[in-house]
Amino acid sequence: MIESIYKTKDSIQSIEAIKNGVCQRCFGNNLHKDKFNNYHCLDCYKYSDINETMRLYRRNRIMISKIHILNLLYNLTEEQKKGSNFFVNCFNNNNPGFLQAVCGAGKTEMTYSVILKALNQGLSIAFIIPRVEVLKEVYNRFIRCFPKTNIKILYENNKDFEFADIIFSTPQQLIYFFQEFDLLILDEVDAFPFVNNIFLERLVMKSVKTDGVILYMSATINNKYLQLINQNKLKYFSIASRYHFRDLSIPKFIQYNNHKQMLKILKQFLKIRLELNRQCIIFVPSINFGHIIKEWLLELQDKTFFISSKTKYKKSIVKEFRRGDFLFLVATTVLERGVTFSNIDCVVINSDHEVFSKESLIQISGRVGRVVGYENGEVIFLSKYLSTSMKQCKKEIVNMNERKNNEVQTM
Ligand SMILES: [Zn+2]
Q1: d(Cα 339, Cα 333) in Å, to the nearest integer?
Q2: For the residues of 220-289, what is the DSSP string, one character each?
Q3: d(CA 27, ligand 1 centre) in Å
Q4: What is the pLDDT of residue 339?
Q5: How far away, in angstroms, is 185 Cα from ligand 1 center?
Q6: Which of 254, 318, 319, 324 has the highest Cβ tally under 10 A?
Q7: Where are the domains of the chain?
């Protein structure tokens, strides 16, 4: 159902916006009493003020039934087929499921079958991704693969979802839905801002029908989901190999004492890239730092760009980089996931900084060696100290490679 606020008390089929100390829009109880003794919800006021004098109106969404087709230009690998079957089985048995797949395994393709099945049953479907850039990229892939399907994308001010057969959305936009979806796919569970965000988790739970199915996907898994798996409340399947079966690149740690020394190491590394004509993404922990590194890089190369969440023309810069127009791209974690470049190396500067969580570092390492023919690439973590996240990231990648090699041997 779609949910919106009405300021009068006479709307039919409406409920109190705040009831028994709980906001009915976000199910939070973080309330504030104003000078008129009215309670307001502090958890979701950013969307628009909501207080106890208001009503929430819920209506059914209109769905148009039709036959959908899947237009795949290539076959899934055996591993991808297993992941795809896992999702279909979860859906058929009405079980929530978690698919853990290494970066570059081709997770999106594993959702096509289950989505086609749900579409042809006339069910309501949501595909949720926390990062807008990744959301847009996956949405574009679906547009190509499901030519008869009406797919809408929801983020920031993009709020048109009428008649959509599949709604692509950030978790934030789920505030507009109440028990709407029969199937909700939640991708990149380990990504900011979803990870450890109780508010967004509430919105996900609220938007799914009581008998709806949630399918989670991620490259890493945290304790919360592991616990549910151990309690048999969540089905689990993992894919340790990339679609081309080569190992994931293991990050190399290089330590420095001061900024000057760090620049020296970076310069040496990039000079070799210049000689080899190899592209490299240089990840930085903050926007300020990104600008400094970009200016410094101009000494080595006259064309270089810096991308952050604030960059206006991200898409065209990424396009030029992918085309090979320039060698070095500086980026914040905005580029850590969802993008594929064919032949690159990655350097993470100040990799011991708190923004680089284990999950984030695994994603960054996963940018390298994704494409057949270019499976090798270097990942360097440059830092003063060795953080726990860095060590955990390396350990997990080594484990995944070992597990994959064991699986390949027994195939
Ligand atoms: Zn609220």
Answers
A1: 12
A2: S--HHHHHHHHTTSSEEEEE-S-TT-PPPPPPEEEE-SSHHHHHHHHHHHHHHHHHHT-EEEEE-SSHHH
A3: 6
A4: 75
A5: 23
A6: 318
A7: 2-59, 78-239, 252-410
Cα-trace Rg, the chain: 23
Q: How far is the CA of 154 from the centre of ligand 1 (A)?
A: 20
Distance 44 CA to ligand 1 centre (A): 4
Give the whole-angstrom CA distance, residue 107 versus residue 219: 9
> What are 156's two structure tokens?
């920031």
pLDDT confidence bin for 134, thresholds 50/70/90: confident
What's the whole-number mean pLDDT along residues 341-362?
Answer: 92
Average pLDDT over residues 43-72: 91
**Structure-token match 């440059």, residue found:** 382
CATH code for the structural domain at 252-410? 3.40.50.300
Contact 132, 156 (CB under 8 A): yes
Same CATH topology for 78-239 and 252-410: the answer is yes
Q: How much is the average pLDDT of 69-89?
A: 93
Question: How many angstroms separate the alpha carbon of residue 45 from the centre of ligand 1?
Answer: 7
**194 C-alpha to center of ligand 1: Å?**
17
Query: To 5 degrees, how large is the angle CA 111–CA 112–CA 113?
Result: 95
Per-residue pLDDT of 366-376, as tens digits, reads 888 776 666 77
CA dihedral 29, 34, 39, 41 (to 10 degrees): -50
Band (31; pLDDT cuts 50, 70, 90): very high
Ligand 1 centre distance from Cα of residue 277 (Å)? 53
The total of other beta-carbon atoms located within 10 Å of residue 354's CB is 9
Overall fold of domain 78-239: Rossmann fold (3.40.50)
**Ligand 1 centre distance from Cα of residue 399 (Å):** 42
